[in-house]
Specification:
The structure holds two protein chains of two kinds. By secondary structure, chain A is an all-alpha fold. In chain A, about 85% of the residues lie in helices and about 0% in strands. Chain A has one domain (about 40-255). Chain B is of the alpha/beta class. In chain B, the strands form three sheets. In chain B, strands 8-9-10-5-11-12 form a six-stranded mixed beta sheet, with helices on both faces. A four-stranded antiparallel beta sheet of chain B has the order 4-3-6-7. In chain B, strand 11 (about 250-255) and strand 12 (about 260-265) form a beta hairpin. Classes of the chains: A mainly alpha, B alpha/beta. The interface of A and B includes residues 124, 132 and 135 of A.
């Protein structure tokens, strides 16, 4: 195949894939209507993708906060502005690191497991079996997972930021001697609800939609073999990480002026 | 894939568009499906397939296939691996759409059904997958209860009775708490069978029910298929390449090869057939119309070329 033809095929395949993913998203969105009477399915999935991801989120949040405390202190102290450490840690976490790092960790932990689970359900004919029992797998399997991802992501991001602030406090106040009152009061006066916290929440909701959408789509579309599922899992992590980083840039450009 | 104005539209996209148009036509009063009980109801055929053609991309899988599955009987569809037997079941179940031709189940044209109508029809069809296709996160009891919970609003006490009755039918009432991973291949298939009859279907499609089973488990499945057919009057479509078992329990058999029917009749008629393709399959002969050698270039030439390289 000549390079031009290969390029054309790649573009056509990508556009077709995007179209399929969009139609799939539409189908799943329509399928979420059924969830009102079966909310326990969503709760189960929030546990699977949210609660089981807590450990990695909390540990990472703590360390990211501690590193921010260290780095921030050493920079700020040069200008005698170490009292602003709380503000720096909080803004970095709430605006950027909370939503972004959570989304990246979520893609690696929960996204990959969603793809593998759905891919294996497909490979073992469980999805086909459901279809033949007149149960729509999009409504029964996919929709609860998508909704759970959208619910879990902002909560995980909030916990990441909260424990990160505590990590920053631990290092800044506990180890490096920043004044505790200044740490909290600067943070309180400098972090705005709408422009900082709400924007951070919007980011993590968008990441929740995108990462979970990619994960369930890749699982549902995977070739039902061990190699196919492995490739799909790989694609989930790569595509969702890239999507998170690109979207973060766009949203940051739009939100913070 | 469907070619449309030079743009390739994926199967799913096309399906969605089709469903949308169907919904539109229904909304505007141009409803196509009328009475589900039409001609085939009277003729005693539950499934009728006429001039069916199915292709995947360039590859033709089923070509001008016509067959009838009689109501209340066990019909076997036999043929070598990859001859399109499972595809045929998927076409009957509406999981695939034919390129052309008709698939009628209980008088209803399956490819023309909307998703909702198709799901209504599937509640009356059971399917036993080769792997069993049990849901791995639910135990045997919950697997059997699954379709009932999804479609019927039964109180828990009655549901328990129904599920235990189904498990008793397949002899696994005592295994209700086992997870699919703890079941042997034969047991998993029996639980799947109990699940397939949970909604009391009019017919069950068995996809290779004997593959990979030990002789005892095979015997159990043979017994169950026969009992479900005679006891409950369930029409059975049995797709298999296990000649002995399939012939032992079927009332009528079709033999598929190269996407078309190469032989049909009662098991006895088929086993006495003079057609060479049929004789090769029934006798398990390694060479014949289906060649032993995969098509290749001349052997000597191939070896000599290898020497030069």
């Amino acid at each position: 195949m000549n390079p031009l033809r290969r390029l054309g095929k790649f573009v056509l395949d990508s556009v077709e894939g995007l179209g399929r993913a969009s139609l799939f998203f539409f189908e799943v969105t329509v399928g979420t209507r059924q969830l009102a009477r079966r909310f326990e399915l969503v709760v189960q999935q929030v546990y699977a993708v949210g609660v089981l991801t807590l450990l990695i989120i909390l540990v990472s949040g703590l360390f990211v906060g501690m590193v921010l405390g260290l780095q921030g202190y050493h920079t700020l102290v040069k200008f005698g502005a170490e009292d602003s450490l709380g503000l720096l840690v909080a803004l970095s976490l709430v605006r950027e690191l909370g939503p972004v790092v959570t989304a990246l960790l979520f893609a690696g932990r929960a996204g990959s497991s969603l793809t593998a689970e759905i891919g294996l359900m497909k490979a073992t004919e469980q999805l086909a079996g459901m279809e033949m029992m007149a149960v729509n797998p999009i409504e029964r399997v996919i929709a609860p997972r998508l909704v759970a991802g959208i619910i879990a992501m902002p909560l995980l991001a909030a916990l990441f930021s909260a424990i990160g602030v505590l990590g920053g406090h631990l290092v800044g106040v506990g180890l490096l001697g920043v004044d505790s009152g200044a740490f909290w009061s600067q943070m309180q006066s400098g972090v705005g609800f709408r422009e900082d916290i709400l924007n951070g929440v919007i980011k993590s909701v968008v990441f929740g939609v995108v990462v979970t959408w990619i994960a369930v789509f890749q699982g549902y579309e995977s070739v039902p073999t061990s190699e196919g599922v492995s490739r799909a899992t790989n694609r989930t992590v790569v595509f969702s990480s890239l999507a998170v980083l690109a979207l973060d840039f766009i949203m940051t450009a739009l939100m913070f002026k | 894939m469907t070619k449309m104005g030079g743009i390739v539209i994926s199967g799913r996209a096309w399906d969605l568009l089709r469903r949308f148009l169907h919904g539109f036509r229904t909304a505007t009063g141009r409803k196509r499906l009328s009475n589900p009980q039409t001609d085939s109801g009277a003729s005693g055929a539950l499934v009728e397939i006429r001039n069916l053609h199915f292709a995947r991309g360039e590859r033709t899988i089923l070509n001008d296939l016509s067959l009838t599955i009689a109501r209340g009987k066990v019909t076997a569809i036999m043929g070598g691996s990859g001859c399109g037997k499972t595809t045929l079941l998927n076409l009957i179940g509406g999981r695939l759409r034919p390129s052309s031709g008709q698939v009628l189940v209980d008088g209803v044209s399956v490819p023309d059904l909307s998703t909702r109508e198709l799901f209504e029809l599937r509640k009356r069809m059971g399917m036993l997958f080769q792997s069993g296709a049990l849901l791995t996160d639910l135990d045997a009891f919950e697997n059997v209860a699954f379709p009932i919970r999804e479609h019927k609003n039964l109180p828990e006490s009655i549901l328990r009775h129904v599920v235990l009755m189904k498990l008793e039918t397949v002899g696994l009432r005592g295994a209700r708490e086992l997870m699919p991973a703890e079941l042997s291949g034969g047991m998993a298939r029996r639980v799947a069978l109990a699940r397939a009859i949970a909604l009391e279907p009019m017919m069950i499609m068995y996809d290779e029910p004997f593959t990979g089973l030990d002789p005892i488990s095979k015997g159990v499945i043979v017994k169950l298929i026969r009992e479900l057919n005679t006891g409950l009057g369930i029409t059975s479509v049995l797709v298999s390449h296990d000649v002995a078992e399939a012939c032992a329990i079927s009332d009528y058999a079709y033999l598929l090869g190269n996407g078309r029917i190469i032989g049909q009749g009662t098991p006895q008629e088929i086993s006495q057939s003079k057609v060479e393709e049929v004789r090769q399959f029934m006798g398990g002969l390694p060479d014949g119309p289906v060649p032993y050698q995969y098509p290749a270039m001349d052997y000597l030439e191939d070896l000599l070329q290898g020497g030069q390289a």
